[in-house]
Design a protein that fits this description.
With about 90 residues, the chain is mostly helical. It has 6 helices and no strands.
């Protein structure tokens, strides 16, 4: 490939296409498309409620299972719990 062909390719790559026709009325088209959507966002949220419930239940079970190693689970007083939570010596 010679320099002349290469310069023509670079010149073609530098040329900016005319996008003014596409840009015209973009906001109007976008809002019209959003308004004609059959399902609003809150309908989708209601469909996802079982997923949210499952996440909350699983996090609660994980939290409950992780608290069995605290000194409060046994017969400990407040100073032992405070020392455990602050990183002090037991």
């Amino acid at each position: 490939m010679n320099d002349e062909q290469l310069n023509k390719l670079f010149q073609a790559a530098r040329a900016k296409p005319d996008t003014s026709r596409v840009e015209y009325g973009f906001e109007t088209r976008l809002l019209a498309r959003l308004r004609t959507d059959e399902t609003p966002w809150f309908a989708l949220a209601w469909k996802l409620v079982p997923v949210f419930v499952a996440v909350v239940v699983s996090l609660g079970a994980w939290n409950y299972a992780g608290t069995t190693d605290l000194p409060m689970a046994g017969n400990a007083d407040d100073s032992t719990l405070a020392a455990y939570l602050t990183g002090g010596r037991l």
